[in-house]
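Protocol step 4 of 6: structure prediction from sequence.
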Amino acid sequence: MKKLTKILAFGIALIMLLSFAACNSETSSTDNTTNAPAETTSAPVETTSAPDTTSAPETTNVVDLPRNETLYISGLQWGAVKGWNPLSSDNNNALAVVQQGGGTRVVMFETPYMYNMLDGSLVPLLADGDYQWNDDKTELSYKIKDAAKWNDGTPVTADDAVATWQATINNRPDKGAEWTPYIGDVVATDSSTVTVKAVLTDDGKPANTMMMLQFIEQQYIIQKAWLDTLIERNGGDTAKIVADPAEDAVWSGPYHNYFADDTKVVLIRDDNYWGQDASMWGKLPAPKYLVHTIYADNNAGQVALAAGQVDACQQFIANVQDMWLKDGLPISTYLPDPPYGLCVNMPTAWFNTSSPGLDNPVIRKAIAIAVDYDAVNANAMTGQSPTFAEVPRSLMSPLPTEQAMYNKDDAEVKDLQWVGNDIDGANKMLDDAGIVDTDGDGIRELDGENLVYNACCPNGWSDWQASMEIVAEAGKNIGIDISTEFPEADVFQTTVTSASQTQYDIFMMWTDSSTPSQPWSRIRKIMSSEFNGVEGNWSGNWGHYSNPRADELIKAIPLETDENAVKDMYTELVKIYLTDVPSFSLMYRPDQFHVVNESVWTGFTEQGDGRNVPPGHCTDGYAVADLYNLQLVEQ
C-alpha cells in the first residue's frame, strides 16, 4: 500500500514541483553560488530546473547540477564549512566529516567497519572480513582489503591505521580521553593486519571490549603520508594541525570535496573509487553528486522537501504523515506508521545539581513526575515517539536488544517508574518533605528561598522548545516557578559544556543513541562523575551529578562476563537513576530522522524490505548501502 500511494502521488507531486518552480523563477537570483537562502520558506531555484541528461564535467556550474545525477540531503548542515580535516572536531562539515558511535559518516573518509543499528552488527568496509579476538580478548585484529585504495592510487595499509591512532592521541586530547582508558595501542602486525590492544586491568582483563568494537566502526583511517604532510607543514603544533582546513586531504571513500560556500556543500563521486571492486560493493554509488543546501531553518528545508528539491531529509517534521496522507506527496519514512522513525535516542532534561534546591532529589523527582509527557509527545513530537506507558522509562532505548538488558519485571523498578502528569503525587511528595509555600505567594520555599528556576534549550529547536514550555507548566502546577529561556545554539552549547555553569537550572541535551557499547556508554554519560569539572565536556553528565555506587557499577560492567550479573547491575543502575533523578528523558526519538521524497530517486531503505539497511540518510555507517540501491524514477 505504501509503494502504491507513492506511485499514485507522483503525478500530483510533479505538478506541484513544476508550479513551485514557476512561482519562484521570477524572483530567484541568477547566481545562487553567492547568495545565501532568503529568510523565507522559498527554497533555492537551483534544484527545480528540469533534469539535464548530459554528463556533468568537472567544471559544471554548481547551480546547474544535473538533477538526475544529484542526491539532495537536508537537516545536517546549518552553516558554511570550515574545513575537510578528518583529524579536527571543528570543521562544521556535517556532510563529509562526522565520527560517531551510531554510525560514522563514510562518504569521504572510511572506517574499518560500518555499524548497523538494526541488528548491532559490524559490516566490513576497509576491513577484509570479520574481526578476530585472541583467546582472552585482550587483542582485536582485522585485515585491510587488498582492493582498498586511497584516491592517489596507493593502498590503504595497517601503517595508515597506526599513524591515525598516534596522530589522534597526540593532537586530540578529547579523543585521547575517550579511547585511551580502554585502548592501549594500535599496531601493524604486517602490512595489512591491524591489532588493537586493550588496556589491561590489574588482573590482566581487558578494560572494555565494547569500546574496542566501537573504535573500529567509529574512527576513520587516515593516510599516513598525508598525515605526515599535515603535521610537518604546521610545525608539529597541535592547535595548528587541527585548525588546518585540509583542502588537500586524501580520501578513500566514494565522494570528495567539490564545492562549498555559505549556501551549499557539494561532494562529487570519485569514479575511480576502490569500492566498485567485487570484494566490496561491486559498483559505484548511483548519484554522481551529494548536495546539502544550507537552509535558514527547518521550515525552509521542509518546503524544499515537499517541492522535490530534497531527496533525503534529516530533520523533525511535525505531523510528517500529512505530507503523504493529506498532501498526496511521494514522501515516506522508514516506518509506515507512528512513530515513523527508529527511536533510539532520549532527549533529556538535565538538572543542574549545583542550583539551590536542585541538589535535593525530592524536588527533582517532583518536577519530573509532574511533567505531562503525553503532551510532550503530542505537541513537541506530534506522536512520533513511543509513550512512557508503552516503553516504561529506564536508561535503555526502546530497542528490544536494550530492553532485555535490565529486569523490567522487578517490583522495585516498577514502583519507581512514572508516566507523568502526576500533579497530586508531586504535591504530596513536596508537602511530605516540608517544602511548602509559607508566605502565600504561590511559590514553595526551601531554606527560606523561593524555588525559582529556568528551563533552557537552543532557540529554533522547536520540538525541544515545546518540551521546555511543558516542563515550565508542570512547575506552575506544583508551586515551583519555572520560566523558559532559549539562547542561540552556540551560546547554549558552550555554556552547558563548560566545567561549571550556573546560568541554566534545567536544560535539554541529548543522550547516546545505538552503538556497540550500549546501554553502558549511555549510562556512563548520564551518570558517571568522571565528567565533572571537565572543561569542554561534550560527553555527558552536564548536571554534575555524583553517586559513588553508580560510578562503581559503571566501572564494573565492562569487566563482567556473566550475563545475569550484568543484567543485575544494569537493573540496579536503573533503580538509582529513577530514585535520584539527576535528569529525566522527555521523549524517545530517532537518532536521525529519515524522510524521503521519491519524485527523483527511489530505493531508499524502509522497514520490511528485506535489505537490513538502517535509516541514516545514505551516509552513516551501513546506511551508506542505500547509495548503491538508489534508482531514478521513470518520468
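Step 5 (inspection) to follow. Confidence is low (pLDDT under 50) at residues 1-60.
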